[in-house]
Amino acid sequence: MVMGVVLAALAVLPLLAAAQSCYGGNTIAGSNNVMPNGKYQIASEGIRANFIPYGASLSNLFITDVHGVERDIVLGFDNATYYTESKMHPHLCGVPGRYANRIKNGTFTIDGETFHTNLNDNGGLDTLHGGADGWDYRNWTVVAHTTDSITFNIVDPDGKEGFPGQVIAYVTYTVQPYQWHLKMTALSTTKKTPILLDGFQNPSTPLALNYSLYLPYAGTRIAIDNIEIPTGDILANKQYSVNDFWSAPKQLGANITSPSLLGNCGYNCTGYDTCYIQNRDAYGPYNWRQAPVATLASPFSGTFAIKETQGFFNDSSRPRVAEKYGCVVMEVEDWIDGINNPEWGRDKKQIFGPGDDPYVLEATYNFSLNHTLAATFDHTATS
Fold first, then answer.
1. CA 270 to CA 266: how far, in whole Å?
2. In whole angstroms, what separates CA 333 from the centre of its chain?
């Protein structure tokens, strides 16, 4: 399992999505928990989430803070039409697929046959998040919906964006008191194919540089080239280096002026658009639901506009945008471009065919009032 941490431009939570118009406060849902604006709502103590079918996307995630006030903590658009009309399409809180992150040259080989996927990134040099019409560009079907859970489904046909075989996928979002859980499953029904799924209230600063990140099992990371394609090498996150988040919690901006951070996220990029490998096996048996692999905490409960439900409104001098380093993206997934790096031994975790067990990914986010975000993640993909 790897965890991608992005602190370079825009961001949200991992594998969350974007969606419709946003309402704060205590908007009342209909008898089937469908909002008047067509969004779907689920809720539990201290947490309320709204979704839209576009990308099976999370549009709002409200967490009740220490003052009893709901805070919407994910980026998105106020207007639902922007998700389909925006040329930026920043992959906000949706489900990228069928293969999250990048595929080098949009090319891979399975059983001697070479496939070419849609080249939609870096001017046609690679495939990103399943191509130009990936899963977070399409409407999913709501197949189940209760007061605290919702399930979406998509059927991806053979040959779509160049990927072989039909894939049937489901994602279920569930809330419990101050907890948000997601589970994704995907089944390849006809051919072998690669599958890899993946608040602005501080009165002093709109940036996330003072957020503290702790990745206790992330002693290594995947090396990338200047356009963020894995080179095949695994790098050590040396203790006290800019990429050391494992030896102790560290603020995201602690090394922001360090020369060694330049290029850490690609050519001329200063930040952490980087994939950290979570190696808990070295510590013996573990229960991922009890031992977080990542903790992100803030003392407070760009060019991309934030929503009406976000922002410190008492400061009229601030632009209504998420500025550079204004938020954080944390993505849960298997090793990126593992299908083109067989030396990593990830084939059984990323290539699935008829008769195989389904691809499965689960993540749990626990929210507490003394830490803005404490998240536990796990990735399990069996074949």
1. 8
2. 9
d(C-alpha 126, C-alpha 57), whole Å: 24
Task: Give the per-residue pLDDT at 306.
Answer: 60
Q: Where are the beta strands (DSSP E) in 13-148?
A: 40-44, 47-52, 57-64, 70-72, 102-104, 107-110, 113-116, 126-128, 141-145
Question: How far is the C-alpha of 115 from the C-alpha of 110, rounded, in Å?
Answer: 8
**Per the structure block, which two tokens stand in for 367?**
């929210």
Give the Cα-Cα-Cα angle 95, 96, 100 (nearest 5 degrees). 135
Q: Return d(Cα 247, Cα 238) in angstroms, integer.
A: 9
Q: How far is CA 14 from CA 11, 38, 67, in A?
A: 9, 24, 26
For tokens 């600063």, name the residue.
205
Q: Which residues pair with 376 in a beta bridge?
A: 364
| pTM of the complete model beyond 0.85 | no
> Mean pLDDT over all residues of the chain?
80
**Looking at domain 2-198+204-381, which of 3.40.50.720, 3.40.50.12280, 3.10.300.10, 2.70.98.10 is its CATH number?**
2.70.98.10
The alpha carbons of the chain give a radius of gyration, in whole angstroms, of 20
pLDDT of amino acid 144: 96
Q: Which of 91, 2, 10 has the alpha carbon at shortest distance from 271?
A: 10
User: Which amino acid is it at 234?
Assistant: I
**CB-facing half-sphere around the CA of 276: CA atoms within 13 A:** 27
Structure confidence at residue 311 (pLDDT): 57
Structure token digits, residue 18: 């974007």
Q: Are 340 and 108 in contact (CB under 8 A)?
A: yes
The label of the residue with tokens 């990927």 reads 163
